[in-house]
Amino acid sequence: MTDVLLTVGTRKGLFIGRRSGGAWEFDGPHFNAQAVYSVAIDTRRAVPRLLVGGDSSHWGPSVFHSDDLGRTWVEPKHPAVKFPEDTGASLERVWQLHPASEAAPDVVYAGTEPAALFRSDDGGESFSLMRPLWEHPTRSQWMPGGGGEGLHTVVTDRRDPDAVTVAVSAAGVFRSRDAGASWAPSNQGVSAVFLPDQQPEFGQCVHKIAQDAADLDRLYLQNHWGVYRSDDAGERWIDIGAGLPSDFGFAVATHPHRADTAYVFPITADSDRVPAGRRCRVYRTGDAGGSWEALSAGLPEGDHFGTVLRDAMRTDDADPAGVYFGNRNGEVYASADDGDSWQQLASHLPDVLCVRAAVMR
Fold it and tell me: Most exposed of 3, 16, 156, 226 (fewest Cβ within 10 Å)?
């Protein structure tokens, strides 16, 4: 069986799972008592680098890195992510750490709260604010979502290192095609059911975006009500939620190799944030949202209340793909066969905030 590294960020530290020869072993917590909202496994290097956005209630947020798979950690002497003094802002949280494509091997993006995008050119050791998005003319009208005003998703394009797409709660999707020098709202077709104008240019509460494995212009979007697909890199979106028990949810992930294949975890409603029908079910599409199937083999059968948050479902890059999710019950589940069957890897952890996995070669 393929060796896999699995990182699980929780409200009280980071847990690391390693699968070798079919058996899983976990250690942690690393960063004990810190909320870990963001983790990246940067496999572009000869030795993978782990990046962690920790949030100490005493010392505040920081970005750590490890070049020995989590055995030791380095925190820069000066804050890796810091708002310039002239912005009048201070960092509340690092929501996202995203290594760019192989075409930009040292570039890492950080999405933060307040909603901003930072760029690192040294593998995540130091970051600079990308001012054109911070100073976007629509910014004064951005409103925080229920979890705050966070830039929580970054999507890059391995064909073009200058193409970057981000999502902000609750401002929507913004795209740049010139390495961040300019940004345009890209929300056509995405609804904002909580606003008087339900089809605004911006202001949507986008929860997560994931990119198709084969068609890089195809994106999947889980919204605050609504599951969408774009076939033109986010310029326009179409609703693909028919066939799901609910189109509310937080997470969306894609298969690492198979085209048109994506996964969501439906939630009953924004006012009742539990699994749809109180059943622990992942839903998969194999035809780009034309239809959905419930995946339940090995998952709990009775009433279940474990909500899966926006960054708490992910695939690895194996074939067949590993699919992983954690929930607010502190449970972690894994599938080694594209989602067809599942096993529970951990229980009684703190709230699971984010999950990342990668094959160790």
Answer: 3
